[in-house]
Write a structure and sequence with these properties.
The protein is mainly alpha-helical. It is built from five helices and no strands. The chain starts with 9 loop residues before the first helix and ends with a helix.
């Protein structure tokens, strides 16, 4: 059976919803957003001023490491809560505890946040009066953008899982 990348199947949607609870909705999206923000700032500084953006890249990697640590902690808390609330939690809701799958899910969280960051960047570029370093309303604006575009995050995550689904199915077809 041939699967399309353009239309995510039900398992892709379920995987996106499964990681949205401990991943995006519990604050890992903020770390992912910070990762993209510091990466963009380091690229801008490197190209515009010709300076060494090593300090900003270190902050970027620290934000990424803090995000993965927070995500691991949230996965553990989420799985414990599921076991406390249900004697036998639904299989589709249980997060994977395999380290490779947790890292893969974290990468999906990071890359699914990219469209939201690009929308935020376009909004900042359209409104040049916002000074990102001095404005007190910047943080409120960031949280509002992350909450208002959570639907876009779920769609992007579903498409990332659909790519994985299609690649796995093509490998299975080639082996047969």
């Amino acid at each position: 059976m041939k699967h399309s990348i353009f239309f995510p199947n039900h398992t892709s949607w379920l995987n996106a919803l499964k990681i949205s609870i401990p991943g995006y909705l519990c604050g890992v999206g903020v770390f992912a957003f910070s990762f993209w923000q510091y990466a963009f700032i380091s690229i801008v500084l490197a190209t515009a001023q010709g300076t060494n953006p090593l300090g900003i890249l270190i902050i970027d990697l620290l934000a990424l490491l803090a995000g993965i640590a927070w995500y691991f902690l949230l996965i553990l808390i989420f799985s414990l809560l599921l076991r406390l609330l249900w004697s036998n939690p639904p299989e589709w809701l249980k997060p994977s505890m395999h380290w490779f799958r947790v890292l893969y899910d974290f990468n999906v969280i990071i890359f699914a946040t990219l469209p939201i960051f690009l929308i935020f960047l376009a909004g900042v570029a359209a409104n040049e009066s916002i000074d990102l370093m001095k404005s007190a309303s910047y943080q409120l604006h960031l949280e509002k953008v992350l909450l208002n575009f959570s639907w876009l995050w779920v769609i992007a995550a579903a498409y990332l899982y659909q790519i994985e689904f299609v690649v796995k199915n093509r490998r299975k077809v080639k082996k047969c």
